């Protein structure tokens, strides 16, 4: 089954890339952009067909490799 | 005294590190990342700078899960010495052998120039050739050198006298001006600046040679 993992910097961790994008949007004339956070999306195609087992597998993958939990949070959804 | 320099796809400071260690008297072996063991009698494992795996996912993330890392971890758990420079520091943080992580530089720019550092502690095999507070000049060359220790991490590192080097003028946003840190047993050093690029007069500076002399000296006596 297919899963989508979203990895974002934790709240409170400064995101200089997001800040740069926010500035660029401002200079393009988009008003009222208060904050931009940039993260990454990883799509997984797993053999596992049981949703709960697949999500548990993906969570392990996040803990071991996909996310750095010192600074990042992850979210797993069915794609 | 035997040193092993790990080599990953994308390492580019591995030979500089080998030259600096050899000049300080070490017998150096280059160890490819697919190896599952280190040469017999390895005293020090050096993890070089570069862009292992093109910095894919996060700097050092993939290298930190490569086969040779299990051997590195065993070496560290036996109390072995480990030295990571630049990408090597990022890899050591990704393995969890050192706390915290290195994020994108505050100004988003890749920075390549010499910086002045203050030695944070002389209490390690790597820094015993200096006095705490002494100034040294090493090049930096990184895009992700903005150290963050995680919640409570910096207080712990400071309290345990584990900050090995601090930037005199912070170039990258690093928490507490941290440029290099030690493990809790003080035998693992990770640092962003490159002492191996300041270890020979032809490189324009020789401040780094003291680090290699100190650690090879301590390990030769052991």
Automatic annotation (TrEMBL), chain A:
<comment type="pathway">
    <text>Purine metabolism; IMP biosynthesis via de novo pathway; 5-amino-1-(5-phospho-D-ribosyl)imidazole from N(2)-formyl-N(1)-(5-phospho-D-ribosyl)glycinamide: step 1/2.</text>
</comment>
<dbReference type="Pfam" id="PF02700">
    <property type="entry name" value="PurS"/>
</dbReference>
<keyword id="KW-0963">Cytoplasm</keyword>
<keyword id="KW-0658">Purine biosynthesis</keyword>
<dbReference type="GO" id="GO:0005737">
    <property type="term" value="C:cytoplasm"/>
</dbReference>
<comment type="function">
    <text>Part of the phosphoribosylformylglycinamidine synthase complex involved in the purines biosynthetic pathway. Catalyzes the ATP-dependent conversion of formylglycinamide ribonucleotide (FGAR) and glutamine to yield formylglycinamidine ribonucleotide (FGAM) and glutamate. The FGAM synthase complex is composed of three subunits. PurQ produces an ammonia molecule by converting glutamine to glutamate. PurL transfers the ammonia molecule to FGAR to form FGAM in an ATP-dependent manner.</text>
</comment>
<dbReference type="GO" id="GO:0006189">
    <property type="term" value="P:'de novo' IMP biosynthetic process"/>
</dbReference>
<protein>
    <recommendedName>
        <fullName>Phosphoribosylformylglycinamidine synthase subunit PurS</fullName>
        <ecNumber>6.3.5.3</ecNumber>
    </recommendedName>
</protein>
<dbReference type="InterPro" id="IPR036604">
    <property type="entry name" value="PurS-like_sf"/>
</dbReference>
<keyword id="KW-0547">Nucleotide-binding</keyword>
<comment type="subunit">
    <text>Part of the FGAM synthase complex composed of 1 PurL, 1 PurQ and 2 PurS subunits.</text>
</comment>
<keyword id="KW-0436">Ligase</keyword>
<dbReference type="GO" id="GO:0004642">
    <property type="term" value="F:phosphoribosylformylglycinamidine synthase activity"/>
</dbReference>
<keyword id="KW-0067">ATP-binding</keyword>
<comment type="similarity">
    <text>Belongs to the PurS family.</text>
</comment>
<dbReference type="InterPro" id="IPR003850">
    <property type="entry name" value="PurS"/>
</dbReference>
<dbReference type="GO" id="GO:0005524">
    <property type="term" value="F:ATP binding"/>
</dbReference>
TrEMBL record, chain B:
<comment type="subunit">
    <text>Part of the FGAM synthase complex composed of 1 PurL, 1 PurQ and 2 PurS subunits.</text>
</comment>
<dbReference type="InterPro" id="IPR029062">
    <property type="entry name" value="Class_I_gatase-like"/>
</dbReference>
<feature type="active site">
    <location>
        <position position="194"/>
    </location>
</feature>
<protein>
    <recommendedName>
        <fullName>Phosphoribosylformylglycinamidine synthase subunit PurQ</fullName>
        <ecNumber>6.3.5.3</ecNumber>
        <ecNumber>3.5.1.2</ecNumber>
    </recommendedName>
</protein>
<dbReference type="GO" id="GO:0006189">
    <property type="term" value="P:'de novo' IMP biosynthetic process"/>
</dbReference>
<dbReference type="GO" id="GO:0004359">
    <property type="term" value="F:glutaminase activity"/>
</dbReference>
<feature type="active site" description="Nucleophile">
    <location>
        <position position="86"/>
    </location>
</feature>
<dbReference type="GO" id="GO:0005737">
    <property type="term" value="C:cytoplasm"/>
</dbReference>
<comment type="function">
    <text>Part of the phosphoribosylformylglycinamidine synthase complex involved in the purines biosynthetic pathway. Catalyzes the ATP-dependent conversion of formylglycinamide ribonucleotide (FGAR) and glutamine to yield formylglycinamidine ribonucleotide (FGAM) and glutamate. The FGAM synthase complex is composed of three subunits. PurQ produces an ammonia molecule by converting glutamine to glutamate. PurL transfers the ammonia molecule to FGAR to form FGAM in an ATP-dependent manner.</text>
</comment>
<dbReference type="GO" id="GO:0005524">
    <property type="term" value="F:ATP binding"/>
</dbReference>
<keyword id="KW-0658">Purine biosynthesis</keyword>
<keyword id="KW-0436">Ligase</keyword>
<keyword id="KW-0963">Cytoplasm</keyword>
<keyword id="KW-0378">Hydrolase</keyword>
<dbReference type="Pfam" id="PF13507">
    <property type="entry name" value="GATase_5"/>
</dbReference>
<dbReference type="InterPro" id="IPR010075">
    <property type="entry name" value="PRibForGlyAmidine_synth_PurQ"/>
</dbReference>
<keyword id="KW-0547">Nucleotide-binding</keyword>
<comment type="pathway">
    <text>Purine metabolism; IMP biosynthesis via de novo pathway; 5-amino-1-(5-phospho-D-ribosyl)imidazole from N(2)-formyl-N(1)-(5-phospho-D-ribosyl)glycinamide: step 1/2.</text>
</comment>
<dbReference type="GO" id="GO:0004642">
    <property type="term" value="F:phosphoribosylformylglycinamidine synthase activity"/>
</dbReference>
<keyword id="KW-0067">ATP-binding</keyword>
<keyword id="KW-0315">Glutamine amidotransferase</keyword>
<feature type="active site">
    <location>
        <position position="196"/>
    </location>
</feature>
